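Below is a concrete protein record.
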Amino acid sequence: MHKLGKVLVAALAVAVFGGTAYGYTTLESLDGITREDVIEAPDPGEQPADGSLDILLVGRDARTDNQDRPLPPEILRELRAGANGDDLTDTLIVLRIPNGQQAVKAFSIPRDSWVAQPGTKDKSKINEIFGRTKFASANEQRAAGKTDKAEINKQAITAARKATLKAVEELSGVKIDHFAEVNLLSFYEISKAVGGVEVCLKKATKDRDSGADFPAGRQTIAGADALAFVRQRKNLPRSDLDRVRRQQVFLAGLAKQVLSGGTLANPARVSDLIDAVKRSVVLDGSWNLLDFVRQMRGVSGGGIAFETIPVVNPDYRYDPRHPTWTAVQVDPAQVRAFAASLIGVQPTTPQAPAGPKVDVVNASGKDGLAARVSDLLAEKGFGKGDTKAEAGRRTSVVRYSDAAGPAAEIAKLLGGLDLQKADSVAAGQVEVVLGQVYKGPGVSAGGGALGALAEPPITAEGADCID
């Protein structure tokens, strides 16, 4: 059976978005929600200047509730989940909540993204970091003489949550302000509490492992069917990448369902929703929900857009000894440029440029490419020069006059571009020309480096069907 845990973190989004429309009194019922201190206090220079918030939403592959109690056998049977499962974080979504604006942006990180494990030189799939850290922490505690199983497990889970958060920060360059985690139970109960979510499929599909069995067209799904919808990867054109898109579609639809008022106008549904959140959701200890609700005032379902980080190779063979083992290869520099262009760069302490001024020429025909690459190079300490567009050319090149060293560094940062000495470039400056086949950092404001991934954002107002 495929691993479960494709749990949408919509539980938290629904509860909090619901509070926006329902009023502050609703939040009083959330006093019993589980808290965990996983967020480190930010340095003053790391605070967003505009008061925006970046939230990590995590779906954890656990057969337990938020108190680490085993899920009832009848629930596991209905969800087609075995009694055992790896402790993975198979849904990772970063949500940017702006301050005083309507647009809410979010991006997904595919569960098999091949990333560095925080604090080590080792690499693994990002969804494995939670389980690896939990296991290592428990062993360290036992080696130190601890014997209380409950306390060992509690500390191990805290370490695992912190490591997962750190891995997301290192990959994306986004400083996370708040953390939320749900599991199978929360997804199962919350999707039912809101009365189901409407989705649309291009064609009928079936998958025995996930339990998916859906007709083509629009339909409302909840409970076990909703979990099957976001679990399925077999019989989909792009496997896990299409599964990510299903998660985004469901989460957008869930936000629309709540923000439309239908859920909030039904006291019984609101009560069920709050009970489910209290039983299964974990929030970081510093999250003030009242402040968050104030910030969410005026946000509509259509104002939430979901995208996916750029992908270099979705079928990356990372171990020559096991050629059938695959992961999703990502370029951290490209991911950070994407995140910066999508949700904005967290401000840092201003520093003088460490390198020459760089002009960027967009000859690719892709809107906004020069500006994104210029911003990326500025993050790396290079001076900002002019950005402009010119007639299309196929290849890319980095030109220089007397700054071959910095030019070579820039060429490497942008994916190994050709170098060219040119008298037309002013002394002490560098010129980057981006051609039509450029696939390096900054290539897209959303959808990834591969042409097959260049898709429009998922929003609650979107009407298109998906695979």
Residues 149-172 form the longest helix (24 residues). The chain has a mean pLDDT of 77. The radius of gyration is 23 Å.
